[in-house]
Amino acid sequence: MGSSSAAPWKQLLLNSIQANSHLKHYSYFQLATVAPNNTPSNRTVVFRGFQDESDRILINTDARSRKIDDLKHLPFSEICWYFTETWEQFRISGPVDVIDGTNPDPFKLQQREKSWFACSLRSRLQYMAPTPRLPSLSEQPSPIPSLDPSIGPVAAFCVLVLDPQQVDYLNLKSNERLIFTSELNDDREKLWTPEKVNP
Amino acid sequence: MGSSSAAPWKQLLLNSIQANSHLKHYSYFQLATVAPNNTPSNRTVVFRGFQDESDRILINTDARSRKIDDLKHLPFSEICWYFTETWEQFRISGPVDVIDGTNPDPFKLQQREKSWFACSLRSRLQYMAPTPRLPSLSEQPSPIPSLDPSIGPVAAFCVLVLDPQQVDYLNLKSNERLIFTSELNDDREKLWTPEKVNP
């Protein structure tokens, strides 16, 4: 199901991750969406790996954040991931699946549970914080809630799965650019075509 | 106008620029736009300063790049600027003015000329390179064209001016978030209102 043949850009991306992994921010990228009023939005999120052996990208987010409204309006996004050590940029675009606790698909709920337990306790606590973007009422930071490490995902925990359709790779050191486009074959497997283009 | 009273987020941003300026990538941010097919696009661009004393943000780009098509479709963008040293994020959104060589406004053409001469010779040469995104025909890098340092902007040189309407500031060290929203008063000056919100 698309995971049988590795996407040709995936090894390039794994190499970049490896070469930048000594930097705390190596896993941060910017996720662009279209808001319900049709304007663009953009924010930094954290790469949480690939789904199983596929090329689908996992992101954790708060179900109460505005990007969820954006993705309900238009379930499509472009990631811009710039690697500061190796001067490489990956622009990765495709449809995004939003998995919250109300999802009817047991396989997806299992992914959500797996993503939850892969988070540090500190990260999990963020999903118990007051609603993002509402006025901050207190001068003091909120008391840290306690969390049983064995309990599953809380209501606000949400997983995004971006299924890449196109990847635009730019290397600012070699000044090379490659665009990988995909199409589905009759078995609904993605077939990737790379093209070397002017930067 | 709008330059008479400084935007309250501008000093925060200048502080972040200062505190990160030892890093080559401090001036890189991601610019999100909406493509003519209504999907989001996202790419890294370089901060080229503020226009005069205002809070308007300058970006240089190639008139042949796809972001120009996006901005003609919807002249509005959100910048996401993450500072890796200080763990601060600025999301800056607003309308974008596209200034190319065909602009009828002499003041805007003057800005374009000023931006051109503020570029290094190396940067200026990029605008004489083969059209971005077209197939790269040669195995060898193109011969470097020669450029008289005294000649003005070439046709492909284009300046974007983003006029901030909203700024969403997040500090991941202090876990504080401030949203600055603007409205125009009767003199068409921007009035900014900051609000402390939950991160």
UniProtKB/TrEMBL annotation, chains A, B:
Name any cofactors this protein relies on.
Answer: FMN
Q: What class of enzyme is it?
A: oxidoreductase
Coiled coil ranges:
none
Q: Which residues form the Pyridoxamine 5'-phosphate oxidase Alr4036 family FMN-binding domain?
A: 7-99
Which organism was this protein described from?
A: Buddleja alternifolia
EC number assigned by the record: 1.4.3.5
Drop me one GO molecular function for this one: FMN binding
Record's SUPFAM superfamilies?
FMN-binding split barrel (SSF50475)
Name the record gives this protein: pyridoxal 5'-phosphate synthase
Alphabetized InterPro entries for the sequence: Pyridox_Oxase, Pyridox_Oxase_Alr4036_FMN-bd, Split_barrel_FMN-bd
Question: Biological process GO terms, please?
Answer: pyridoxine biosynthetic process
Pathway assignment: Cofactor metabolism; pyridoxal 5'-phosphate salvage; pyridoxal 5'-phosphate from pyridoxine 5'-phosphate: step 1/1; Cofactor metabolism; pyridoxal 5'-phosphate salvage; pyridoxal 5'-phosphate from pyridoxamine 5'-phosphate: step 1/1
Alphabetized UniProt keyword annotations: Flavoprotein, FMN, Oxidoreductase
